[in-house]
Write a structure and sequence with these properties.
By secondary structure, this protein is of the alpha+beta class. The protein folds into two domains: 197 residues, Fructose-1,6-Bisphosphatase, subunit A, domain 1 (Fructose-1,6-Bisphosphatase, Chain A, domain 1, 2-Layer Sandwich); 119 residues, D-Maltodextrin-Binding Protein, domain 2 (3-Layer(aba) Sandwich). It has eight helices and 15 strands. The strands form three sheets. An eight-stranded mixed sheet has the order 4-3-5-6-7-8-9-10, sandwiched between helices. A five-stranded mixed sheet has the order 12-11-13-15-14, with helices on both faces. Strand 9 and strand 10 form a beta hairpin. Helix 2 packs antiparallel against helix 3 and helix 5 crosses helix 8. The longest helix is centred in the first third of the chain and has 21 residues. The radius of gyration is 19 Å and the shape is globular. It starts with 13 loop residues before the first helix and ends with a helix. The mean pLDDT is 93. The structure holds 2,5-anhydro-1,6-di-O-phosphono-D-glucitol (AHG) and manganese (II) ion (2 copies). One manganese (II) ion binds next to strand 5.
Length: 329
């Protein structure tokens, strides 16, 4: 049954929106709201740094590698620092896991929440002035508050998320999030330094005609993926692939489409991370009426066994994800 939602006027400021909706959250004690505010604040700092990236020395590679063996960019590291600082100050979070950090960061034993984050998504687009993003998931800890954090607090399924969202640093900067009561999008007004509601109760079209996949790797796709791509072409679909998951996802959510990062010969489980990228976008997709699978299984029901686990990812309009899945089985 569709729950009734409080109508929110376009233009309402994010802070006010969070406050108005706090009672929707079952543990409504204000800590989750504070975490969302902290994320919004850190994103403004990151946004400012991104906007002047060409003018100061923050473009290019760090010369180091992240947990997955990928070359870190300076902005990857900077964004990781900004979000870590913002989320550790208030004491609401007991642990942070990040794509950029090998192990979890232990924050405050009295904190109730665990945060998973891809601080900078779309690293290859940083230096060329193309849209990039941040992706986050928030979980409630399982072990008792006040005790050291446990593996079960960290390795939770997507269905355990209490909130998830992304920031898209694009032609405008947007924050999109869900707490399990639909999806709302906020646009950043930089002269006021505030996010305002611009996309209330976002719904993903049930079907669409955009497919987003790195076809350069098509020779190493499974036959079913190749057949689905043939189907897309035979039906006059449009290919759109930015190479920043957040941007590709956001476009497809608004216009109707599917994003696929399948298993490849090089990456047997695909490239994307279950805990930093897929779970958050799966939660948002489902809340907007879309779907997210690994080709067969619902993403949010996959029990993670390691922090940096990768998974094939099919996300977007419901009918398109179902159709793609039918070619795989
Ligand atoms: P990140 O920059 O956080 O490592 O993520 C990059 C991801 C995702 O954003 C994008 O869709 C995908 O990698 C692109 O990969 P390919 O270059 O292999 O297509
Ligand atoms: Mn990413
Ligand atoms: Mn990243």
């Amino acid at each position: 049954m569709e729950e009734s939602r409080i109508a929110q006027p376009i233009g309402i400021a994010l802070d006010r929106f969070i406050k108005n909706n706090q009672e929707q959250f079952q543990y409504a004690s204000g800590e989750l709201s504070q975490l969302l505010r902290d994320i919004a604040l850190a994103s403004k700092v990151v946004n400012r740094e991104i906007n002047k990236a060409g003018l100061i020395d923050i473009m290019g590679a760090m010369g180091s590698q992240n947990s997955g063996g990928e070359n870190q960019q300076k902005l990857d590291v900077l964004a990781n620092i900004r979000f870590t600082r913002a989320l550790s100050k208030g004491g609401e979070a007991c642990a942070l896991i990040s794509e950029e950090t090998e192990s979890y960061v232990d924050l405050n034993n009295d904190g109730k929440y665990v945060i998973a984050i891809d601080p900078l998504d779309g690293s290859s687009n940083i230096d060329v002035n193309v849209s990039i993003g941040t992706i986050f998931s928030i979980y409630r800890r399982i072990s008792p508050v006040g005790t050291p954090i446990q593996p079960e607090d960290i390795l939770q399924k997507g269905t355990d998320q209490v909130a998830a969202g992304y920031i898209l640093y694009g032609s405008s900067t947007m924050l999109v999030y869900t707490t399990g009561h639909g999806v709302n999008g906020f646009t950043y007004e930089s002269t006021l330094g505030e996010y305002f509601l611009s996309h209330a109760d976002l719904r993903m079209p049930p079907d669409g005609k955009i497919f987003s996949i790195n076809e350069g790797q098509s020779l190493s796709f499974a036959p079913g993926v190749a057949k689905y791509l043939d189907y897309c072409k035979q039906n006059g679909f449009t290919a759109r692939y930015i190479g920043s998951l957040v941007a590709d996802f956001h476009r497809n959510m608004l216009k109707g489409g599917i994003y696929i990062y399948p298993a490849t010969a090089k990456d047997k489980n695909g490239k994307l991370r279950l805990m930093y990228e897929c779970n958050a976008l799966a939660f948002i997709a489902e809340q907007a009426g879309g779907l997210a699978t690994d080709g067969k299984n619902r993403i949010m029901e996959i029990k993670p066994s390691t922090l940096h686990q990768r998974v094939p990812f099919y996300v977007g309009s419901r009918m398109m994800v179902e159709k793609a899945g039918s070619f795989l089985n």
